[in-house]
TrEMBL record:
<dbReference type="InterPro" id="IPR000157">
    <property type="entry name" value="TIR_dom"/>
</dbReference>
<dbReference type="GO" id="GO:0007165">
    <property type="term" value="P:signal transduction"/>
</dbReference>
<feature type="region of interest" description="Disordered">
    <location>
        <begin position="616"/>
        <end position="638"/>
    </location>
</feature>
<dbReference type="Pfam" id="PF24406">
    <property type="entry name" value="nSTAND_NTPase4"/>
</dbReference>
<protein>
    <submittedName>
        <fullName>TIR domain-containing protein</fullName>
    </submittedName>
</protein>
<dbReference type="Pfam" id="PF13676">
    <property type="entry name" value="TIR_2"/>
</dbReference>
<dbReference type="InterPro" id="IPR027417">
    <property type="entry name" value="P-loop_NTPase"/>
</dbReference>
<dbReference type="InterPro" id="IPR057123">
    <property type="entry name" value="STAND_NTPase4_dom"/>
</dbReference>
<feature type="domain" description="TIR">
    <location>
        <begin position="1"/>
        <end position="140"/>
    </location>
</feature>
<dbReference type="InterPro" id="IPR035897">
    <property type="entry name" value="Toll_tir_struct_dom_sf"/>
</dbReference>
Length: 848
């Protein structure tokens, strides 16, 4: 459904109108919008009639606001007045774009949301393209979210007797899984629903990504096929679509294709209308221009291939707008159904960092949305999200909404029962048991299936890939000789049908990584004491920790055993990495080569930032990075010792930290200290290596940057050299800052915080002081002024470390609420300007 845009402007702003059209060209080319303005009037046309016609026909009315526009009698008195009437009726949306500075705040436009952000005029931006990009982003958001109220879409639901039926209302609010929450008796779908993202299929290069929020499917008319795995949230999305469309006076009709066994469309629609609406007849529904079909589970329709195609063609004759769902696998064979050729296919994506935070915030605030303290909300959010991140960990557990909700319930239940988890092993085990329940595996057979899967995982590990048909036959033959024989067909049938195993490329694999890692880790943990073969394979894991799968297997071994051999092996690996280096101390002397650079870079300023926006931006950035890393092949030459050692260092630190975080209550103080010390010293030995090799290679690095910059003819040789040296030092500083933060996030723990305090006290170097402070901010999530003061005193005279400390503090303030008084104290203590913060805090209070 194209959105018609009317542009109203003063002819003195012709250049701005042209810039706007240039930046809207992509949306126009995609068929999202249709633009009209008075330059499209031809000679001899009734210009006033044309303007009136297009103004009354437009859904989006854009005003280019400037002193000239405000002074124009026709623009202001005629076009503005009519536009505001249509805006008040809900028939159109007014979007003012401030192009030149003027007193628009004193005009009628002050009541509207203006673009660019903060109403800063286009001409005041240092980069005009960035200004237009910001304005267009805001404009597109309004286009996506606005539904015009017209006679064709409101004629039926505006009648009092046409309402959604009570039974349909109950179904729409049903989460379809049992959710218990400490603050509400019954959790409804809309209470915790978060719209997922989708990725449209495109016949372009692999790196061209087209990811959008799924709401586009129910905001823009078309025929869509939404693909997703089982329990991905397809039906929940159709429920959300039904609610949103009905609220905008459309007439959505939900159809479950699993119940379709005949191609009698009229009978199907009559039954659906009767069940889902009150006061709406079949004839009224069919004649409406507002009807929309929501077709669920298309891949499971009870029709054969021939009649499925006939059925879809009949639906296409009846509905112009259809959203259909199916399982991902069906998407690969949908070309066998010609009637689907006109459908635009999109994949339903899992929840990344951004979406996970949104659902966590909803869950925490449920039942107390209006009263929960913002600082408590964000602190609890980060704590719960960190637990989710540990379990989900790079899609080891599929980040489906249902899994996230189940995990949050588990964390809450375990906390209430005060259970000591072994590295979240109970969470993975519970998810596997739920797969067993869905497969109707009897409780008395759990042990049998657990053992079969443990042995299959070991066979796959030894093979290095999935098992082909002969290998799976041999496996069950061998299994029957070692244990009691089992029915291979029945076992494989249940496990493949319920997302435990999958048959991919004619080989048996585990459906999800967490199931494979769980069982192969179980085999390692149980067999290590007696099996020499398993001991050899443990060493293989340790020697290749730079491999993602091997590092994860080792983590899952810690889920299954508390035996000391695991800790011993981890500490051996940690001590062996960069063992020829000293731990970086980050003293003023070690970093003296950066003194001049630190004096030249600008002082930090605590800018005016909105906390939730900062958190959203951070999460979106993390999603982009993770999406990129998941798409990489990671096929690196294992002979690159430095590369593998760096990866092994970080992986080993993460494993050490995970053990600390989840076994802190049962490990002795000395053991915790040794593990934290081993992890931190490994990271600092790498940092010492980096600083030394960076310093030794300084000339080569600068020359490399010089060669790149020399391509810019407007730079003098001296400017090129200065920029190159600055870039080199920026890189060095960023790595030092990043490694300190990585060490803290890897080995840190809220519960074991006193261990890091002791470590900083014993080692007494700037590096350990910063690590300790970073752990406090990252895991305790509180800004202790006294603690910051002590850290400041220890780092006095060390410009590099002081800069890192200031960035830590500013980042914390951007992510968590901090009182204005505390910001003033920090300003005086650290020399950070907080201009504009008082006004921002006042505004926040006013919104509350």
């Amino acid at each position: 459904m194209q959105r018609k845009i009317f542009i109203s402007y003063s002819h003195k702003d012709e250049n701005h109108k042209e810039d706007l059209e240039d930046h809207l060209a992509t949306l126009k080319r995609q068929g999202v919008i249709q633009i009209w303005h008075d330059r499209k009037i031809l000679a001899g046309d009734d210009w006033k009639g044309k303007i009136d016609h297009h103004l009354n026909d437009a859904e989006i009315i854009v005003f280019l606001i400037s002193p000239s526009f405000l002074a124009s009698e026709y623009c202001f008195d005629v076009e503005v007045r009519r536009a505001m009437e249509r805006h008040a009726e809900g028939a159109a949306k007014i979007i003012p774009i401030i192009v030149r500075p003027c007193l628009w705040q004193e005009s009628e436009f002050s009541e509207f949301q203006v673009v660019p952000r903060d109403g800063q005029a286009i001409t005041l931006w240092s980069d005009k393209d960035s200004a237009w990009l910001d304005a267009i982003s805001g404009l597109k958001k309004y286009i996506d979210e606005f539904f015009p109220i017209t006679s064709s879409t409101s004629s039926l639901l505006s009648k009092a007797e046409v309402i959604v039926s009570a039974e349909q209302e109950r179904w729409l609010s049903d989460t379809e899984i049992i959710l218990t929450h400490r603050k509400v008796d019954k959790v409804k779908l809309n209470d915790i629903y978060v719209l997922p993202d989708i990725e449209f299929e495109r016949e372009l290069k692999e790196k061209d990504i087209d990811i959008l929020e799924s709401s586009v499917l129910y905001k823009t008319a078309g025929r869509y096929l939404l693909l997703g795995d089982e329990q991905q949230g397809k039906t929940s999305f159709l429920k959300k679509s039904f609610i949103e469309l009905a609220s905008k006076s459309y007439l959505p009709l939900y159809v479950d294709a699993t119940k379709v066994t005949k191609i009698d469309i009229d009978k199907l629609i009559k039954r659906g209308v009767a069940e889902q609406y009150n006061g709406l007849s079949f004839d009224e529904f069919i004649s409406s221009q507002s009807k929309i079909l929501l077709l669920d589970n298309l891949d499971q329709i009870g029709l054969n291939e021939k009649y499925r195609n006939i059925f879809l063609n009949k639906l296409a004759d009846t509905f112009d707008w259809t959203i259909a769902t199916c399982r991902t696998a069906f998407g690969y064979i949908r070309t066998e159904t010609p009637a689907l050729a006109g459908y635009k296919a999109a994949d339903l994506l899992g929840f990344g960092n951004y979406k996970r935070e949104e659902i966590v915030l909803k869950w925490i605030s449920l039942g107390m949305e209006e009263s929960i303290d913002e600082a408590i909300l964000y602190s609890k959010c980060d704590e719960l999200k960190k637990q989710l991140d540990i379990v989900i960990k790079r899609n080891i557990v599929p980040p489906k909404p249902i899994y996230i909700l189940m995990l949050m319930q588990m964390f809450e239940a375990y906390a209430q029962q005060n259970l000591e988890l072994t590295s979240y092993g109970h969470c993975y085990q519970q998810l596997i048991y739920q797969c067993f329940e869905k497969a109707n595996i009897s409780g008395r057979d759990y042990e049998k299936y657990l053992n079969i899967l443990t042995e299959i995982s070991w066979a796959i590990f030894l093979q290095g890939n999935g098992l082909n048909q002969k290998q799976i036959d041999d496996f069950f033959d061998d299994y029957g000789r070692k244990y009691l024989s089992v029915n291979k067909t029945e076992v494989l049938g249940k496990l493949k049908a319920h997302s435990v195993l999958s048959d991919k490329s004619r080989k048996i694999h585990f459906k999800y990584p967490y199931i494979y890692y769980f069982f192969v880790g179980k085999k390692f943990a149980e067999g290590y004491p007696e099996s020499e073969e398993i001991k050899d394979k443990v060493q293989l894991l340790l020697d290749n920790l730079h491999r993602e799968d091997f590092a994860n297997i080792l983590i899952f071994i810690t889920h299954h055993t508390k035996d000391s051999w695991v800790l011993t092996k981890i500490k051996e690996v940690l001590s062996s990495l960069f063992d020829g280096q000293q731990c970086a101390t980050l003293t003023k002397e070690q970093l003296s080569f950066m003194d001049d650079f630190m004096r030249k870079i600008p002082e930090l300023v605590l800018e005016q930032r909105e906390i939730q926006k900062e958190r959203d931006d951070r999460n979106k950035s993390l999603d982009i990075m993770e999406r990129g890393s998941l798409e990489e092949k990671h096929e690196h030459d294992e002979s690159l010792d430095t590369y593998s050692n760096i990866n092994r260092s970080f992986k080993s630190m993460e494993i050490a930290g995970q053990i600390i975080r989840n076994r802190h209550a049962t490990m002795t103080r000395d053991t915790l200290y040794e593990l934290a010390s081993s992890g931190a010293s490994t990271g600092l030995r790498f940092l010492d290596y980096f600083i030394k090799i960076s310093d030794a290679s300084k000339s080569e690095i600068i020359n490399f940057i010089v060669n790149i910059l020399s391509e810019y003819p407007n730079l003098t040789n001296r400017e090129v050299q200065t920029h190159a040296e600055s870039a080199y030092l920026h890189l060095t500083y960023s790595v030092i800052n990043g490694v300190v933060g990585k060490i803290a996030s890897s080995i840190g723990s809220k519960e074991a915080y006193e261990i890091y305090e002791e470590l900083a006290k014993q080692e007494n170097t700037p590096a350990y002081t910063l690590i300790n402070q970073a752990v406090e901010l990252q895991f305790k999530r509180m800004l202790d002024i006294d603690s910051i003061q002590k850290t400041m005193d220890k780092l006095r005279g060390n410009p590099v470390c002081l800069r890192i400390l200031k960035e830590m503090v500013i980042q914390h303030i951007y992510m968590f609420p901090v009182a204005y008084k505390e910001k003033q104290q920090l300003s005086e203590m650290l020399g950070i300007s907080v201009r504009g913060q008082h006004l921002m805090d006042q505004n926040k209070l006013g919104k509350g």
